[in-house]
Amino acid sequence: WTQWFDRDDPSGTGDWETIVDLRRENPGKICRDPVDIEAVTLSGLDASQTGENIYLNDLENGFVCRNQDQPDWECSDYKVRLSCAPDSCENGANFNKKYYSTRYNRDDPSGSGDWEHLSALISENPGGDLCAEPVYIEAATFDGEIPAIRTGESFYSYSPTKGFVCRNSDQNTGTCRNYKVRFGCFCRIRM
Ligand SMILES: [Ca+2]
Ligand SMILES: [Ca+2]
Ligand SMILES: [Ca+2]
């Protein structure tokens, strides 16, 4: 979670704790993709418990309580905080921190096998969260999340810098399972 922010008070049209304003006024303190928002009164009462009609309370806009929506024409004064995904690179200036990419599944075992190689993943996902020189790779079955090393299959490539390839011709069974992969990258390389 971020610190609590209280940028406005209910005077004027209401209490406006909008994400766009919070970002502008607190550069670098709010991650790019928050996953949760919490709004409480300054005394700590959750917004849902105050009985007030809340105009906005979501990850896209932030929190807004408008005085005009209240029977007594006055909102409480709220503060908000945001939760950021773990391993996000946006939480500070530590460029040596590592993050995990999202999981990718670009291929299935039909054809010659399951090809989750890094060069294809990068070229097929421009603007994604992959980096050119990953330091970790993690592969697991697409259904069931079984780690690749525990499936007993032989892999043609299982390398952070090359990616993951399972060839059907290398298996006793004649076919690979379907795998998904994710990579560990240094924040400094992404940014
Ligand atoms: Ca406030
Ligand atoms: Ca295939
Ligand atoms: Ca796959």
UniProtKB/TrEMBL annotation:
A Pfam family that the UniProt record links to this protein: Mucin2_WxxW
Domain WxxW stretches: 1-84, 104-185
**Where is it found, in Gene Ontology cellular component terms?**
extracellular region
Q: Which UniProt keywords apply?
A: Glycoprotein, Secreted, Signal
Subcellular location as annotated? Secreted
InterPro entries linked: CILP1/CILP2, WxxW_domain
Predominant cellular place of this UniProt entry's protein: secreted
Write down the PANTHER family for this protein, in alphabetical order.
CARTILAGE INTERMEDIATE LAYER PROTEIN 1, CARTILAGE INTERMEDIATE LAYER PROTEIN CLIP
Q: What is this protein called?
A: WxxW domain-containing protein
Q: What is the lineage of its organism?
A: Eukaryota, Metazoa, Chordata, Craniata, Vertebrata
